[in-house]
Amino acid sequence: MIMSVITVSKNNFDSVKNNSKPVLLDFYADWCGPCRMVSPIVEAIAEENPQYLVGKVNVDTEPELAQQFNVFSIPTLAVIKNGTVISQAAGVRPKAEILAMLKG
Question: Among this protein's residues, is 69 annotated catalytic?
């Protein structure tokens, strides 16, 4: 089964946050160049790792979620396990580093 990246909004955030799988959130904006560099990496992780839930949060349409995660620069990646943020990093990251964040 191929998992795709889900769009996360304030409407579905609680179910995403409380998922039994570790969650990777990619905070991005359509106009952000570095975000476009991270996006294919995040999508590859979603496709190759069904044990993780991967979501994207558009900071322009979901400012409350961005504020909740103290996102000051994008892209920002956050990892949630058992409803708690265990790791967060801003800027472009290589795939291995993102996977390491997920493994915690």
Answer: no
Identify any residues that bridge with 24 across adjacent strands, giving them in sequence order: 54, 79
Selecting among 24, 35, 42, 65, the annotated active-site residue is 35
- CB neighbour class for 75 (10 Å; exposed up to 12, middle 13-18, buried from 19): buried
pTM for the model: 0.95
Euclidean distance between CA atoms 13 and 1, whole angstroms: 23
pLDDT one digit per residue (tens) for the chain, 104 residues: 456 899 999 999 999 999 999 999 999 999 999 999 999 999 999 999 999 999 999 999 999 999 999 999 999 999 999 999 999 999 999 999 999 999 98
* Residue 32 falls in the annotated catalytic set: yes
**Is residue 66 within 8 Å of residue 59, measured between CB atoms?**
yes
**Can you list the domains of the chain with their CATH numbers?**
6-103 (3.40.30.10)
Asked whether the beta carbons of 49 and 20 are under 8 A apart, the reply is no
